[in-house]
Design a protein that fits this description.
Protein name: Alpha/beta hydrolase
GO molecular function, one term: hydrolase activity
Strand content: 15-25%
Number of helices: 11
Domain AB hydrolase-1: 14-246
Number of strands: 9
Keywords: Hydrolase
InterPro entries: AB_hydrolase_1, AB_hydrolase_fold, Epox_hydrolase-like
Largest sheet: 7 strands, mixed
Length: 255
């Protein structure tokens, strides 16, 4: 699958991979902080952004999609930064391209199967909007608000509400495809241990990386280090961008 992507800057290559319901734009602050020193490749994963839709949505398939972009750009060595679901895509890539991978940085995600359904209200809101003919974002937000209470979450989702080729407005991500594959998205199949340089960055108030995940992280990423960002949740890079950007640069530039 040919993903939509954008390239900024020059230098060593870094690939940014967004999370569920996101797009390349979600890591824009991070891309802007890195592009002065690196070649930054920001991708839209399948079923997201401007990339094609598919009923197939496994982490290995998504990892291969991103590797296809890297091959198109003739990049021999690269580092990966993935947030949330994008972190799992990045972790899955270690099995497919460990010899090309310089450094791996995971933002608030563990290599585990999550058993809690976290997005029922979001899917209900997305389906609610899709029931109606909507001509602008403010209308879409009215329907979305029937199920999604948090204004910040609504604004994040509405970044992917846009005019389609048909001229009608709709979601850029594949709502029904994501619902059908939700167990796969929340799941995880353990990978062969990756011994390269790896950093897990956790939001202090987030429950995506917990003490009980330490064993699974150590088993699959024996060389991994960890860093906690105080007073942040799952969207740590949006809540404290300067802090997170500094952590990332320090990790990338360390010997």
């Amino acid at each position: 699958m040919n993903l939509h992507y954008q390239v900024d800057g020059e230098g060593s290559a870094i690939v940014l991979i967004h999370g569920l319901f996101g797009s390349a734009d979600n890591l824009g602050l991070l891309a802007r902080s890195l592009k002065d020193k690196y070649k930054v490749i920001s991708v839209d994963l399948r079923n997201h952004g401007r990339s094609p839709h598919s009923e197939h949505f496994t982490y290995r398939e998504m990892a291969n999609d991103v590797l296809n972009v890297i091959d198109q750009l003739d990049i021999e060595q690269f580092s990966l930064i993935g947030h949330s679901m994008g972190g799992k895509v990045a972790m899955a890539m270690t099995e497919l391209a460990k010899d090309k991978l310089d450094r791996l940085l995971i933002l608030d995600m563990a290599p585990v199967h999550y058993h809690v359904h976290r997005h029922q209200n979001v899917f209900a809101g997305l389906r609610e909007v899709a029931k109606h003919t909507v001509g602008k974002r403010s209308e879409a937000e009215t329907y979305l608000a029937m199920h999604v209470i948090e204004p910040g979450v609504r604004q994040f989702l509405l970044k992917s509400f846009a005019k389609q080729d048909s001229g009608q407005y709709g979601w850029r991500f594949n709502v029904e495809g994501l619902i059908a594959n939700y167990d796969t998205i929340m799941g995880w199949e353990e990978i062969t241990p990756f011994h390269g340089k790896t950093l897990f960055v956790k939001g202090q108030n987030s429950d995506y990386i917990l003490p009980e995940h330490r064993e699974a992280i150590g088993r699959q990423f024996p060389a991994a280090k960890a860093h906690m960002v105080a007073n942040t949740g799952h969207w740590l890079h949006a809540e404290k961008p300067e802090t997170v950007n500094r952590i990332i640069l320090n990790f990338l530039q360390a010997a």
